[in-house]
Every structure is written in structure tokens, then in C-alpha cells.
């Protein structure tokens, strides 16, 4: 057992044998752990399946949003202040929708990162996706691309436009799911619970939505947040003139739908969407995916692409458009030093 030319006592032989066993153990453990890591890293998710799941999650959340509003059991609370100083509302509709959406996705793909606007400490909902793929998705997306599970980040907004929800301004209310791969938005779902319509897109494959045939830039109709329409007015007029029509509206999902061929008569028609203050990624990711799939753009006010991995906040403002020269719009915008960056 001893190396050639070396005499060992019985105790030395025993020590030498133990050291050899230790080396073998560590080599074996290293091989096993590397194989486990390789297996985990090869886990993939089909994007067509994930699109269908996202649609189902948004619809199930929307049912809860609608039920709570119709039963008038909102149990409204204030969970804090927005960056603009407005009260940030929380209702039972937000929480019930969150539970349905979050756990449906997590129970189906427990190894995928899911970020939601809401959080609660209740037990896991037991819902699991039935793996049915709607006919309109099958028609447009014939085969789904497989992507690594660890490249996926899902953003869900269980109730967009909560303030308007409490005011019974229900046309603005949506539920949304977005799937980002390596930080780029590839799946967007925006569901309107009170009309039952669901807009969806898978970048590179298609969408059940389409842009309008024409957009007017002389002057444009610009849709903005109701919460700070006054603050953004001067910024927009400096860029596009004081005859620009400013459309205050609630909900980031609604504002993106206003850029597209209308789902229903209560959606206004806008030529671009501008937001100048801090906004969360679950508010904008689904709309970004929809616009990208239709050849449009959603960027910061400086024209930078938004990264949908990492932190939840976007501090660079927002410019969204479709079927127009987006860079030309960016170039017309005046300098904007957002207080959210300081």
C-alpha cells in the first residue's frame, strides 16, 4: 500500500489508506454534484405552453377581480405611497387574484422565477394548469421554442389600476402576465376582466392583436397616467407642440391597448404612451412584449431597452409606440432628470 521505496508502520499504512479513501470520496462526490448541476441547467420550458398558462393565469385572476368588485367586498387598504405621493391601494381583489395567478404558475413550473406585485402569507392554492392550449394560440403558434428554465423571469400584475378599481372606473382594470427570457420580454398577456377580452403575444410568432392602420403625429394623442397628467403636460408640449392632445388614463395595460386596434369601444385611441416617473416592471413588461411582437417599441425616455431581469423598478421613464419612427420620437423629447434617480 505504501509508495515505492517508503516503509510505513502499521499506523502509517492505516493513515495512508484513509487518505486514499478520502480522495476517492471527494472525486466521486464532485462527479455526482456536477451531474446534478448539469441536469438542473438542462431543464427547459416550452414557450407555447408558457403562453397558454399565462393566459389561463390572467383569466383566473380576472375572475377573482370581477367577483370581488361585483360582491363589493373590496376591504380596501392603503399599503403605502407612490413616488408621486398618491395612496397605493390594496384590495381583496388584488390579493385573491395574486393567489390564483401566482400559485397556478408556481405549481406548474416550481423552478421558474415568478415576481408579483402582491405578496401574502396564505397557504398555497392547489390549482394546477390542465395543459389545454386555446385554439387561437394553436392557430398562430404551431410549435413552441424550448428555453432554459433558469433564463426565465415571470412578472405578474394581479390587478392593474387598483385606484380606478376602487372608484368603479372598470374599463381601466386589467390582469397581466409577462415572461422575459434573459431579460427580454417574449410573452405578454393583458386580460380585461370586465369585458372578458384577453390580448396576448409571443415575440417571433405572433399575436391576437394588431396595430391600427394609421397613427397621427401632427399633433399626436399622447396617453399618460391620471396620477400625474399635469406634471407630464409641459414635457409633452415641449416635444410635440401645445396642440398635442393629452389623454389621462389609468393602468399601464390599458394604455398599451390604447395604441392598438381597439378591443372594445371604451378604449381610447392614442398615438403614443409616455410615462415620466418611476414604474414597476410588472406594470409594463406585458405591454412591452405585445408591442415588440407587433413591430413596436417600448423604451426609456432616452431610447434604451428595458431589462426585465433583476430589480423590479424602472427609473428611466417610458416611451411606447407602434408603426411610427420611434427613434424620431425619442430625439424630440426634452431632457428629463427624473427625481427617482436621485
Automatic annotation (TrEMBL):
- Taxonomically, which superkingdom? Eukaryota
* Cofactor(s) the record lists: Mg(2+)
- In its UniProt entry, the species of origin is given as Coregonus suidteri
Main location per the UniProt record: membrane
> Could you tell me which PANTHER family the record lists for this protein?
3'(2'),5'-BISPHOSPHATE NUCLEOTIDASE 1, INOSITOL MONOPHOSPHATASE 3
Q: Which Gene3D superfamilies match?
A: 3.40.190.80, Fructose-1,6-Bisphosphatase, subunit A, domain 1
**Its membrane topology, per UniProt?**
Single-pass membrane protein
Q: In which pathway does it act?
A: Polyol metabolism; myo-inositol biosynthesis; myo-inositol from D-glucose 6-phosphate: step 2/2
Q: What reaction is this protein's catalytic activity?
A: a myo-inositol phosphate + H2O = myo-inositol + phosphate
Per the record, a Pfam family? Inositol_P
Family named by the database record:
Belongs to the inositol monophosphatase superfamily.
Which keywords fit this entry according to its UniProt record? Hydrolase, Magnesium, Membrane, Metal-binding, Transmembrane, Transmembrane helix
**Listed GO biological process terms:** phosphatidylinositol phosphate biosynthetic process
Q: Which InterPro entries match?
A: CysQ/Inositol_MonoPase, Inositol_monophosphatase-like, Inositol_monophosphatase_CS
Enzyme Commission code(s) on record: 3.1.3.25
Q: Where in the cell is it found?
A: Membrane
Q: What is this protein called?
A: inositol-phosphate phosphatase
Coiled-coil blocks: none
Amino acid at each position: 500500500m505504501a509508495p515505492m521505496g517508503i516503509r510505513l508502520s502499521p499506523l502509517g499504512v492505516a493513515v495512508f489508506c484513509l487518505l486514499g479513501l478520502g480522495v476517492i470520496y471527494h472525486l466521486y462526490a464532485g462527479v455526482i454534484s456536477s451531474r446534478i448541476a448539469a441536469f438542473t441547467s438542462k431543464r427547459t420550458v416550452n414557450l407555447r405552453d408558457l403562453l397558454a398558462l399565462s393566459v389561463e393565469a390572467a383569466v383566473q385572476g380576472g375572475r377573482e377581480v370581477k367577483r370581488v368588485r361585483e360582491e363589493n367586498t373590496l376591504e380596501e387598504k392603503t399599503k403605502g405611497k407612490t413616488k408621486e405621493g398618491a395612496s397605493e391601494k390594496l384590495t381583496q381583489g388584488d390579493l385573491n387574484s395574486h393567489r390564483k395567478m401566482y400559485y397556478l404558475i408556481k405549481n406548474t413550473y416550481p423552478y421558474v422565477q415568478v415576481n408579483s406585485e402582491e405578496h401574502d402569507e396564505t397557504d398555497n392554492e392547489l390549482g394546477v394548469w390542465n395543459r389545454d392550449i386555446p385554439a387561437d394560440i394553436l392557430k398562430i403558434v404551431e410549435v413552441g421554442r424550448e428555453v432554459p428554465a433558469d433564463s426565465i423571469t415571470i412578472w405578474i400584475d394581479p390587478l392593474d389600476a387598483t385606484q380606478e378599481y376602487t372608484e368603479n372606473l372598470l374599463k381601466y382594470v386589467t390582469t397581466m402576465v409577462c415572461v422575459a427570457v434573459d431579460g427580454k420580454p417574449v410573452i405578454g398577456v393583458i386580460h380585461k376582466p370586465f369585458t372578458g377580452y384577453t390580448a396576448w403575444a409571443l415575440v417571433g410568432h405572433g399575436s391576437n392583436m394588431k396595430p391600427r392602420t394609421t397613427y397621427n403625429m401632427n399633433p399626436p394623442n399622447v396617453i399618460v397616467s391620471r396620477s400625474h397628467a399635469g406634471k407630464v403636460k409641459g414635457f409633452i408640449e415641449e416635444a410635440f407642440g401645445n396642440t398635442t392632445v393629452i389623454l389621462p388614463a389609468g393602468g399601464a395595460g390599458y394604455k398599451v391597448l390604447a395604441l392598438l386596434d381597439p378591443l372594445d369601444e371604451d378604449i381610447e385611441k392614442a398615438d403614443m404612451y409616455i410615462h415620466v416617473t418611476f414604474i414597476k416592471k410588472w406594470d409594463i413588461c406585458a405591454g412591452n412584449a405585445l408591442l415588440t411582437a407587433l413591430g413596436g417599441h417600448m423604451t426609456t425616455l432616452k431610447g434604451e431597452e428595458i431589462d426585465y431581469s433583476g430589480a423590479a423598478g424602472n427609473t428611466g421613464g417610458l416611451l411606447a409606440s407602434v408603426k411610427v419612427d420611434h427613434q424620431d420620437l425619442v430625439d424630440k423629447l426634452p431632457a428629463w432628470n427624473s427625481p427617482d434617480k436621485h
